[in-house]
Structure formats: C-alpha cells, structure tokens
Amino acid sequence: MADKNNAAKAQPLTAVKGMNDILPPVSAEWEWLEEKVRSLMARYAYRNLRTPIVEPTSLFVRSLGEVTDIVEKEMYSFEDRLNGEQLTLRPENTAGVVRAVVEHSLLYDGGKRLYYMGPMFRHERPQRGRYRQFHQIGAEALGFAGPDVDAEIILLAAALWRELGLSDVRLEINSLGQPDERRQHRAELIAYLERHADQLDEDARRRLHANPLRVLDTKNPAMQQLVEGAPRLLDFLGESSMAHFRGVTDALDANSIAYRINPRLVRGLDYYNLTVFEFVTDSLGAQGTICAGGRYDYLIGQIGGKQAPAVGWALGVERVLELVREQGAAIAQPAPDAYAIVPDASAMPQVLRALQALRAAGVGVQMHAASAEGLGSMKSQFKKADASGARHALIFGADELAAGELTVKALRDGSGAQQRQSLDAVEALARQLKA
C-alpha cells in the first residue's frame, strides 16, 4: 500500500490549461520588451504602479458593467474561505489602477501619468495570442481632461511600435461622445435593431435593451450588414464632443500619425466615453488587436472617488511579441561577458573570490560548475564556454593562480588570442571584458 501511495504522489503535475510557463530563451524576449517599455515610459514621464492580482469582485462588476462578456462569462471569481468576501483574479487592470488612485488619494496634488505590467486572467478558449493567463502593459493618464493627453497617449503607443521595429500596425479611432448623446443614440439604435429583430443572434437579442451599443461590436459575420446600416453614434455628437475629437485628430495629423475613423468601434467595456481607439494588425489572424483604450471620465466617480477625467490603453504582451517574431525583428539573447574555466576544484575558493570582484565591477561571468563526477576536462569546459555565448574565457590554471593571475582567451573574434592578467587589476580587467 505504501508503494502505491508513493507512486501516486510521484505523478507529474502540469500547468493549468491556458496558463503557460515562460522559459529561457523566450523569457529574454519578454525582458527585452519590458526594458523597451520602461525606457519609453520614462521619456514620457509615466511612473510605474503595481496593483494586487486579486481584487474585490464588485470592482469589476461596477466598472466593466454586468452585461459584458468579461463579467458574465470570463472572470475567475471565488469566495474567500476565511471571511466570505467575493474576490476575482483581475481580468484587466484599469479598474485596479483607478481603485488604487482613489484609495490613496493620488490626484490630490494634480494629474498622474502611470503605467503597469503584469498578468491578467480570463476564462477563454485558449488559442494563438489568447490565453487564460495573459499579460498586459498599460498606460493611464488620470486627472487630465483635454484632447492633447488623448493624443499624447496614442503617440506613446505609436512610439513603442517604432521602438520595437513594427510596421504592420494601423490605428482606428472613434468617439463615443458623452452620456446624454449616448442615450439619444441608444434609443435610435434600439428602435433600429427591433425593426430587424429576426436578424439578431442570441447575444444581440440578450443585449438589445441592456447594452445595445455592444451589438455593434459583434464578430458574427452574418450580422455585419445589419451593423453597417445601424445609426452612427458620431452623428449624435454635440459640438463639445466633436471639438474634443477634432483636437485629437488634429494632433495626430500634426505628428503624421495615420488613422482611420471607424464609427463602429465601441470597445467592449462600459466605462469609455469620448475618444476610443485600437491599434490593429493583419499579421495575427483573428487576434488582430494588439493595443486598445480610450477615455473614461466617469470611472473614478463610479468606483467611489471624486469624479476626475482619465484616458489610457493596454497592450497584450503575448500578441505584441508574436508580431515582433512575425516581422523578423532580431531580439538579442543575453550572454555573459566571460566564462570561468577551472581545471582544479581545489582552486574554487580563490576563483569565486576573483569572480565576485569582477561581478561587483559590472562584468557578467558564468562559472563552470562541477557535476557529481567532478569539473570535467578542459575540452568539455571550453565547449560549455562556447555554448554560453560568452566573448571571453577566463582560465584559472594552477600556474596562473600561483602568480596571482588568470588567462583571458578571446572566444568570438576568431583570433583565439590569449593574455595573462593580474587578479588584483580588477578595474582594468573589467574594462577589457566589457569592451
């Protein structure tokens, strides 16, 4: 019986379906993207904010709307066994950012430009570019009402595509106006859809009175002609909303940012008003939207704060990296500056002291580690040095160590040149290995 129990415990475990491990060397691509983002955000004066992965379920019901796919079908929600609180793994992060801004009174001294990176969770059918644990990078500008900030945040995304070497990305933009304008459009839209009720699919019939604007966001090919003939929200916008929209497009024009006005672009979340936009590509098939966002001037009030304007976007990390791979951008794999060759295990304490000094001076060094059989031959160590990608081998032979030295051998320039260096001249050696 004990043997059976031990065998049962030894069964391998696998990741949850749709939630993937990110392993080297692929993880280097993620780090490359994240570093590009951090550098760009700093240039635009956006500061990093980190929120919990778990939030109160009511946060998303209140912000996203009850009649949305995310709330109705996709959220990972559960009851806290200790206190009965209803909790949810975050399906998106704008609501969490706003909750944090309200809770910590971040707007007390003026607007804030913030960005975030991290995992989100939705129970969807896993497919290319869409997973149940997926990752987003987002930018949010809170406390700014003008169209100039709408344009700036779009320019920020466009600058990121240039940084990543992407070209097959286009911008689609629309305005959803203000609530009173939406109400007028809503009444006309419901009347139109009711006249064509026989053409509505099940989702559209369910949303007809609860959230008719979402009907325009349908992906059902059989309904596209019906959607094209529906009343356009742009035609219901007043002068103030149109002036805001012109302010955005004028700024994009001034910066030579190409865009298409798409009157059917409504986004899938209830909290948007005025400007909405998407960056899309034809290179990823059905998962063509890589970045999307818009203005959400009423969300801060809905979550319990003093009403303040805001605008933001989020991009899908998996989709962006897939597009980088599709377009052939080269992502350099990290490699150490040097690989330490150690012929004799007894020298390891002295070798480790030298390597620590080099690392402290900014040199990346991979140490050859012993196996159960020992350090292995010099030949096998050099093979591993070559496979590591290091530009230099550091040879800690007995003769060298006796003289307080090591041998530096070039591995990448084809020369194989070798020279002795003093172990005490750490800064000079570091400069040589980093050059």
Outline of the structure:
By secondary structure, the chain is of the alpha+beta class. Helix content is 38%, strand content 20%. The mean pLDDT is 90.
Write down the overall mean pLDDT: 90
Number of domains: 2
Binned strand content: 15-25%
Radius of gyration of CA atoms, rounded to a whole number: 28 Å
What structural class is derived from the secondary structure elements?
alpha+beta
Using the coordinates above, name the CATH class of the largest domain: Alpha Beta
Distance linking N and C termini: 63 Å
User: CATH superfamily membership of the largest domain, which one?
Assistant: Bira Bifunctional Protein, Domain 2
Q: Examine the coordinates and then state which fold CATH places here, giving the name of the CATH topology of the largest domain.
A: BirA Bifunctional Protein, domain 2
GO molecular function, one term: histidine-tRNA ligase activity
Subcellular location: Cytoplasm
Main location: cytoplasm
EC number: 6.1.1.21
